[in-house]
Amino acid sequence: MGRTMPSFLRTSVRIPGLELIVFVLLMLLKLYLFDASINVRNMRMGLDDVIVATGTIGLIVFWTLWLSRRVRLIVLAVLHLVLTVILYADLLYFRYFQDLISIPVLLQAGQVGALGDSIGSLLEPRDLLLFADWPLSIALALRVLLRRQPAVRSATGVSRWRTAALRVVLSLVVCAISLALVFVPIQIAKRTWAQGLFVGIWWNVSLYNVTGLFGFHGYDAYVYAKKAIGQQQLPEPELLETAKWLEEHRSRTTPPQDDALFGAYRGANVVMVQAEAFQSFLIGRSYMDQVITPNLNALIEESAYFPDFYHQTAQGRTSDADFAAQCSLQPLPTGSVFIRYAQHAYSCLPGVLKDNGYDTAVFHAYDGGFWNRNVMYNTMGYANYYNRSDYIIDEPLGWTVGDRSFFRQSTEKMAQMSSPFYSFLITLTSHHPYPMPKSHHTLALGELEGTMFGDYLQSVHYVDQALGSFVEDLKQRGLWERSIFVFYGDHDNSIRDWQPFETFLGEELSELRREQLQRQVPLIVHTPDSGLAGEYPGGGQLDIAPTLLHLLGIDTGEPFMLGAPLLTAQPPQERMVVFRNGAYATDSHYYTPAADGIPEHGVCYDLATGEPAGTDACVDQAAEARAQLLHSDRIINYNLLPRLRELRER
Ligand code: GP9
Ligand code: MN
C-alpha cells in the first residue's frame, strides 16, 4: 500500500511536525478563500491577519504533538474536516445575514433549519474549492487507520520518558509561539486603531477583522462561557451613567406634552402590521406597466407616509424588527433578544397599552416557539398570542397559510376583542427565497421572470392584494374608522445581486443608494379621520412605539424607549436613526462606520449631494450613535429596567 501512495504523503508521515505545517497552510488558504468570498469593504485579509490566523490555528492543534504520530494524523484529519465545516457554515450564514455565526445564533438552530430552501440558494460552485482537499485528508486518515501496526519494540523506560518529555516541550513551544502570534498583534490593534473594540461589541465583523474567523469563535465562546458562569451586575457608577444618559436622551427627543397631537387619537384601537421583507423601493412603482403595490399606494394617499424610514434590524431579523418597533430598544450585536434575554424586563407597547386598559393580541401563523415567541410575547405583555395552531391552513403558501387567509382569520379573532384593543399582525408569505406557485403569478415580468427578484415581486404583489382585502374587511366590520392602522416592513429581502434592482428601477445605484435602499422599509400610519395624510421625513423602527403612544396621549413617564414620536404638531429637532453597526442617518447626513470603529475613518455622506463630505460633520453624532448602542445593550444584557425604576423612585 505504501508504494502506491504519493511521495509527499509518505514524507508527511515521516518528518515530525510536517503534517502540522501542511495543516496550518491548508487552513490559511481556506481562511483566505473565506475572506475573499465575504469581501467586506476595507477589510481584506492582510499580513497581520495571516499572522493572527496562523496563531489561532496553532492554538487549535498544538496539543496534537502529545499524541503518537499515528493518532495525531487521524486527529488532524478530523480537525481539518470539522474546521472546514465551521468555516463553510459561516460563509453561508454570512451570505444570508452579513454576519458570523455566534453561540447565541446556534441556540436559534430552529431558525437555521427552517431556512432550508434559502440555504440551497446560497450555495455557489466555487465553494467546492473549500472541499478540494477533503479526499486527500480522508485518504490519509484511512491509510493510517487501516495500516497494520508495526510490532512495538519495547523501549526502555528512559527512552520512553525522553520521547514523552520531548513531545511536551515541543508542544509547549508551538503553544507559546501561537499565543504570541495571536495576542501581540491584537494588543497592538487594541492600543491603536481598534481601541474599545472588545468593550462594546456592536458588530461581529469588526471583531473578525482583528481576531480572524477562528479567533472570533474562540472569543465568542469565552464571552458566552463567562456569562453562563455568573451573570454579573452592572456596577453602580455605570448604572448611574446609563440613567443619566437616558434622561438626557429623553429630554432631547421627546416633544412637550402640550404638543397638539399628544392624545389627538386617545382611546382609538391600534391595528399594526409588520410585513415580511417588505422594502420601500416597491412603493409607487410600476414594472412593464403593472403597478406593484396598488393597494398600499391608495392607502398612502390618505395616510402619513414615511418614504425615508429605516429598519434597524441585525442578526435577529424578524424578531429584531418586532423588538425595535414594540420595545424601542436596539437589537443585540449577536443573536436575538427574543432568544437570549426573553426573561428580562422591558417596557413595550403591548404592555404599556394593557396597563392603560387595552385588550392586546399578537397574530402570526407560524410555529409558536419560533424566535422564542411563546416566551417573549408573554414578557412583552400581550394578553393573547395566536400562532399556527390557531389557524386553519386553508390556503397553504410558503411556510404556512397564505397572508390573505391569515388576515381574514385574524380579523375574525380581532372582532371578538374588547375595545379599545391593540392587535399586532406579522405576515409571512413574502419570505426569502419567495417561491410562489405559478397560479399565484399575477405579474408579467419579462427578463426578471424566473429570477429570485422576480419571485420577490410576485410575492409582494400578492401581499399587497391580501392587504387590500384586509382593509376592506376591517371597513365592513366597522373597525377601520375606530382604529389607527400601521404598516411597516421588517427588513430587506436579502437579495444581494444588484443587477435586477437596477433593471427594475431603471437606474444605476451608487454605493450610498444601495445602502439606503437595503435599509429602507415603508412606514404608513393611517388615523381614523385620515387627518395626518402626507409625506414625512426620517424615522426608524425604534420610533414606532413612541409615535403611537404620543397619538394616544400616553406618557409612560419613563425614559426607557430610545425612539421618538414621528408625528408631532411642533417640528421635531433633527433626529438620528442609529443602526446596529454604528452607522446612522439624519435628515441631512448618512454615516457608515469603518471596520476599525474610528469615527474619522467612516464615510460621512451629505444627503443633499449624495457625495461623501468631510467626516467633521459626522464624528459627534457617530459617537452619540455608539453611546445609544452601548446603553441599549446595558439595559438588555444586565436587565436594568427594575434597577432604573428603583433609582427613579429614590
Ligand atoms: C417566522 C418569521 C421569519 O416566524 O418570523 O423570520 P425571519 O427568517 O424573517 O427572521
Ligand atoms: Mn422577516
Briefly, what is this?
The chain is of the alpha/beta class and 650 residues long.
Structural commentary:
There is one protein chain. The chain folds into two domains: 7-148 and 156-229, no CATH class; 257-557, Alkaline Phosphatase, subunit A (3-Layer(aba) Sandwich). The model has no long low-confidence stretch (mean pLDDT 91). The N and C termini lie far apart (81 Å). The strands form four sheets. It has an eight-stranded mixed sheet with strand order 6-5-9-1-10-11-4-12, sandwiched between helices. Strands 13-14-15-16-17 form a five-stranded antiparallel sheet, with helices on one face. The protein has a two-stranded antiparallel ribbon with strand order 2-3. Helices cover 48% and strands 9% of the residues. The protein is an alpha/beta fold and 650 residues long. The structure holds (2R)-2,3-dihydroxypropyl phosphate (GP9) and manganese (II) ion.
Tags for this model:
2 domains, 5-stranded antiparallel β-sheet, Alkaline Phosphatase, subunit A, 650 residues, 17 strands, alpha/beta, binds manganese (II) ion, binds (2R)-2,3-dihydroxypropyl phosphate, 8-stranded mixed β-sheet
Give the beta-strand count: 17
Task: Tell me the CATH topology of the largest domain.
Answer: Alkaline Phosphatase, subunit A
Low-confidence stretches: none
Class derived from helix and strand content: alpha/beta
Total separate domains: 2
Largest sheet: 8 strands, mixed
What's the CATH first level of the largest domain?
Alpha Beta
Q: What's the CATH H-level homologous superfamily of the largest domain?
A: Alkaline Phosphatase, subunit A
Overall pLDDT metric: 91
CATH hierarchy: architecture of the largest domain: 3-Layer(aba) Sandwich
Percent helix = 40-55%
Bin the strand percentage. Answer: 5-15%
Q: Looking across the biggest beta sheet, what order are the strands in?
A: 6-5-9-1-10-11-4-12
CA-based shape? globular
Could you tell me the radius of gyration in angstroms? 28 Å
Instruction: Please work out how many helical segments DSSP would assign.
Output: 23
Terminal CA distance reads 81 Å
Can you list the ligands bound to this structure? (2R)-2,3-dihydroxypropyl phosphate, manganese (II) ion
